[in-house]
């Protein structure tokens, strides 16, 4: 949503270097990940897996929806859906249904992004209408298959982890290529992983992670540019 906002990338990068303000500290450590795997990894049915994760998320003790929404709203340079196509993923916490929000969904951008960032067990599910939603990463941490039909696909994946019946990034990329797409994939290198740290939700690591990402960008620039050659 930030990248599609129309704000120059350089300005977005500079904002990542500023000290975190108004962010809610959180931890996605081993115990939290283990709870996700335990909740979702006990079935081969992806919809049932996501529904179990959703039930865990609804029962978890988390900050309030209102406080979390304020953080999401503050992060967005624009609160309106952009003119360019933007797909925001979420999962219905009750049914396990995978949902894709866009500008035609009659859902505010703030709520759509909030739902897509609602890590189960850490942040509260987001209420939209009569339903509650959690992070679309519970279906896939990448959801690269949504780019099916495109001729060129650049996948930037801060994490490509998968568990239980989640589709793997390699399978999604293979599907895109089988459909005729040229695909480049960028995931954190060793330096970036070190900068991010084990707790990917720690706002104190943001500036270091941004610098490491920019350094890696220089290393992969030619590969990415070749996608459009």
From TrEMBL:
Please name the GO terms of the biological process aspect recorded for this protein, alphabetically: lipid metabolic process
Keyword field? Lipid metabolism
Q: State the Pfam families in the record.
A: Patatin (PF01734)
| Keyword DNA damage belongs to the record | no
Q: What is this protein called?
A: Patatin
Q: Does the keyword Lipid metabolism apply?
A: yes
User: Which intervals of the chain form a coiled coil?
Assistant: none
InterPro entries given in the database record? Acyl_Trfase/lysoPLipase (IPR016035), PNPLA_dom (IPR002641)
What range(s) does the PNPLA domain occupy? 72-147
Question: What SUPFAM superfamilies does this protein map onto?
Answer: FabD/lysophospholipase-like
């Amino acid at each position: 949503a930030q990248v599609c906002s129309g704000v120059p990338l350089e300005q977005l990068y500079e904002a990542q270097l500023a000290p975190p303000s108004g962010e809610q500290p959180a931890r996605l450590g081993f115990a939290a990940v283990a709870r996700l795997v335990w909740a979702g990894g006990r079935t081969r049915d992806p919809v049932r897996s996501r529904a179990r994760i959703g039930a865990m998320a609804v029962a978890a003790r988390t900050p309030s929806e209102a406080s979390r929404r304020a953080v999401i709203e503050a992060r967005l340079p624009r609160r309106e859906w952009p003119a360019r196509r933007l797909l925001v993923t979420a999962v219905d916490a009750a049914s396990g249904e995978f949902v894709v929000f866009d500008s035609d969904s009659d859902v505010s951008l703030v709520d759509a992004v909030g739902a897509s960032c609602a890590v189960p067990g850490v942040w509260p599910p987001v209420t939209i209408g009569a339903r509650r939603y959690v992070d679309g990463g519970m279906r896939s941490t990448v959801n690269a298959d949504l780019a099916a039909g495109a001729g060129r696909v650049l996948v930037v994946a801060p994490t490509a982890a998968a568990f239980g019946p989640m589709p793997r990034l390699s399978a999604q990329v293979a599907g895109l290529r089988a459909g005729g797409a040229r695909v480049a994939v960028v995931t954190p290198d060793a330096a970036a992983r070190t900068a991010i740290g084990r707790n990917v939700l720690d706002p104190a690591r943001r500036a270091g992670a941004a610098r490491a990402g920019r350094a890696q960008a220089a290393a992969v620039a030619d590969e990415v540019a070749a996608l459009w050659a």
